[in-house]
Amino acid sequence: MITTRIIATGACVPEQIITNDDLAKIVDTSDEWITQRTGIKERRISSGENTSDLAIGTARQLLEKAEVSAESIDLIIAASVTPDYTTPSLACMIQKEIGAVNAVAFDITAACSGFMYALSVADKYIRSGVYDNAIVIGAETLSKIVNWEDRSTCVLFGDGSGGAYVEKSEDCGIIQEELGSKGEIYDILTGGYTPCSNAFNDVESGVDSMWYVSMNGREVFRFATKSVVTSIRNVLEKAGVSADELKYIVPHQANSRIVEIVSNKLKIPFDKFYMNMDRFGNTSSASVPIALNELNEKGLIERGDKILLTGFGGGMTWGTMLITW
Ligand code: UT7
Prior knowledge:
By secondary structure, this protein is of the alpha/beta class. The protein has helices at residues 20-24, 31-38, 51-66, 90-98, 114-127, 151-154, 217-239, 256-266, 277-280, 287-297; strands at 3-12, 17-19, 42-44, 75-79, 104-108, 133-141, 159-169, 173-181, 189-190, 214-215, 246-251, 306-313, 317-324. The relative contact order is 0.20. The site of oxa(dethia)-CoA has 19 residues, from helix 2, helix 6 and helix 7.
């Protein structure tokens, strides 16, 4: 059976570290509140790098680690809610900079589930025999759309990018997945609204602030715990794999309390969940691949291990994938 196997992982984040204490200097918050409510201690914030710079950094690493030429890349899919432009796509900018002249390149958007959705699309192209390989990247500079005067959101997010180079395989790879969307509650997490203004229509009033990330934190929290628990359960059940067989779960790095609840509800030991939100915060579509890359770089996973990636976010959306490494 043809599957899609992750051959290499990579990540690229800005150098600038902003701690909780740094944030307490600009909004009414504290290290204690942020740590207790989220598990986040610091995050990387761009000091000029745009999303494409981070994404290109990741793509270059992927080529190097996988030891493949840029010309051999068939497909580039980037996931982002903060691309440099509406057009060109981030993926086309990556294509140009790395010289992947033979690739088809496009973006998708599924917020914090973006990497899961992008990997799923790449998997379908590969399984169907259309392409043999792909670069899949999640990249964000959320600092562009965060309201730095709103303590309820600005403490949560960070900038960064992560990704994977995947190839057609006949043994290991993606073995099961579940993607889901619940558009009827899209308004509990929004950002980047662009008003419909033109020469014949006044700018809609009161929409300027809708550029910024706005969130009903408690509703998103409720949605996250429910969707992640159900989708992990469904994926394991469909694959006939027990939680005991999993080496690691790489969850979206939004809030350690969400992960604790998921761990309790599924009765999966907390230490099977790989977390680095204390150092990177919530980097949306980049969060799962940045964590996966760390896990991989540390040598904590070996070929043949079963790992599970799971994300949730704006849309609302979720995605869970079971992989034999
Ligand atoms: O990628 C997907 C994105 N989002 C998420 O996954 C977020 C899911 N939700 C959450 O993680 C949590 O809901 C938050 C961390 C956002 C908030 O935690 P919470 O325990 O739900 O707090 P809350 O919103 O109920 O606020 C509790 C209190 C409020 O004060 P009062 O009304 O009790 O006096 C807030 O004003 O905490 C206050 N507060 C803060 N205080 C200090 C809110 N933000 C802050 C802050 N520092 N940064």
